[in-house]
Every structure is written in structure tokens, then in C-alpha cells.
């Protein structure tokens, strides 16, 4: 009995430690096995490079990858955020989306809240929680992963919002897709917007195929420069 309890405790700790794949059950994942392996290798390589650059000293960045799209989630000083992005882009991902938490202003226990969130996701009807990764920071929740359909995505978001102690929910949940149809890397303005916290659901836009591209009579206008820092809403 004690051995079983220890195994369950270790499994719970693994699911909460920021590892991109600890919460995944391969039989529930919507991605192909080769895609899962490629994503795991990419995320591990970037995480290792960040740790080698002293990103583990005083702050932490969780690294996730789905279909080659990389997500960086953590609390990082503003003057180090650009460096973290540059390191991630060295590995040629399809996109890099940062989600930087501002310094915590709450005494809410991340561990306790993460445990409650995981319990409610497991108990949610019509939802396979093994497809969803979570990050929690002072009441602020980020959902990541590949879910079966839009209905499952909405169930996950609603469930997270109802957990006691949650102050905001940001969703980067994706629907199943072929690797060749993964979104292209977001431009600077989109990346800056994605880095804001507590802004509700956020998705990567699907890429258009060449046949779907609209004709352009004149060159498109140059995008405005992205703000120097995320804007909190």
C-alpha cells in the first residue's frame, strides 16, 4: 500500500513539474508517434539550451512543442526575454510563442492550485485531461496541448475557470493537424500579443494553402512595430 501511494505521489509531482510531456498518455494524444517524438526532442533541446544559459537561476521557463510550434511559459526578467526567444529560434521551430508572467502578486500556492486544476480536469465529463498540459502562476493558468475538437477545448477552458483560486485562464490548446499545415511563425506583433497574460482564450491561426491565398493588387502594408513589453489587461 505504501509503495502504491509513493508511485501515485511521484506521478502527481511529475505532472506538475513543467515538463511538456509528463501529463501525456500516448494512447490519448492526437498526434502521430513520429510527431510526438519530434516535439519532445525539440522541446528538450531548447530547455537544455536555456538551462545552459543560466535561465534556471532565479527564474524558470517551461518549454512545450506541438507540431513543431514552441511555447515558452514562465516568469522571466524583461531584459532576458529576447535572449530566451533567440535561443528557441536557433532550433528552427515552426513558431515560437512566449507567455511571460509578470511578478507574482498573490500568495496562492501554485502546487495546491495545480493539483486542484488537474483533479477537476480529470473529473470533467467529455474531456481527456491527459491531452492537456498546464502551467500555474499565482492564480494565473495557462492551458496547452492538442485536444480532439473545439468542444473539448471549450470544456477544458470552462473547467479551469471554475477552479477556486484561478484568476485568469489563457488557452493555447490546438486541434489535430497535419505537420505540413502547422501555422507559420507569428510575426513580432502577434508574438508580443501572445505574451500577455490573463487575456482569455488564444489560438494560433491556421495557415492558408497556396490556393487559399487572396490575390493582392498592391504590396501589403508593413506591420506596425510590436510594443516593447507585454501589455497587461
Helices and strands, with pairings:
Elements: H1 2-15, H2 33-52, E1 60-66, E2 69-75, H3 78-89, E3 95-100, H4 110-123, E4 132-137, E5 140-146, H5 150-162, E6 168-174, H6 188-194
Parallel strand pairs: 2-3, 5-6
Antiparallel strand pairs: 1-2, 4-5
Features:
about 230 residues; disordered N terminus; three-stranded mixed beta sheet; disordered C terminus; 6 helices; alpha/beta
Strand content: 15-25%
Strand order of the largest sheet: 1-2-3
Please describe the biggest sheet, giving its number of strands, its sense, and whether it closes into a barrel.
3 strands, mixed
> How much helical structure, as a percent, in the residues?
25-40%
Mean pLDDT: 74
Total of helices: 6
Order of helices and strands: HHEEHEHEEHEH
The number of E-state strands comes to: 6
Radius of gyration of CA atoms, rounded to a whole number: 18 Å
Structural class: alpha/beta
Shape: flat
Amino acid at each position: 500500500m505504501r509503495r502504491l501511494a509513493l508511485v501515485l505521489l511521484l506521478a502527481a509531482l511529475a505532472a506538475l513539474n513543467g515538463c511538456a510531456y509528463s501529463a501525456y498518455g500516448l494512447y490519448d494524444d492526437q498526434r502521430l508517434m513520429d510527431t510526438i517524438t519530434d516535439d519532445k526532442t525539440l522541446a528538450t533541446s531548447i530547455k537544455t539550451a536555456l538551462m545552459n544559459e543560466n535561465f534556471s537561476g532565479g527564474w524558470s521557463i517551461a518549454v512545450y512543442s506541438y507540431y513543431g510550434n514552441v511555447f515558452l511559459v514562465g516568469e522571466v526578467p524583461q531584459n532576458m526575454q529576447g535572449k530566451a526567444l533567440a535561443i528557441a529560434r536557433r532550433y528552427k521551430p515552426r513558431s515560437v510563442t512566449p507567455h511571460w508572467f509578470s511578478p507574482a502578486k498573490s500568495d496562492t500556492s501554485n502546487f495546491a492550485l495545480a493539483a486542484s486544476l488537474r483533479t477537476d480536469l480529470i473529473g470533467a465529463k467529455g474531456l481527456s485531461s491527459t491531452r492537456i498540459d498546464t502551467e500555474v502562476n499565482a492564480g494565473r493558468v495557462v492551458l496547452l496541448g492538442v485536444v480532439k475538437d473545439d468542444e473539448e477545448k471549450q470544456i477544458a477552458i470552462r473547467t479551469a475557470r471554475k477552479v477556486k483560486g484561478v484568476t485568469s485562464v489563457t488557452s493555447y490548446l490546438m486541434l489535430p493537424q497535419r505537420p505540413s499545415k502547422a501555422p507559420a511563425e507569428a510575426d513580432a506583433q502577434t508574438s508580443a500579443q501572445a505574451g500577455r497574460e490573463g487575456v482569455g482564450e488564444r489560438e494560433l491561426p491556421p495557415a492558408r494553402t497556396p490556393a487559399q491565398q487572396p490575390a493582392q493588387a498592391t504590396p501589403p502594408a508593413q506591420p506596425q512595430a510590436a510594443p516593447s513589453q507585454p501589455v497587461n489587461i
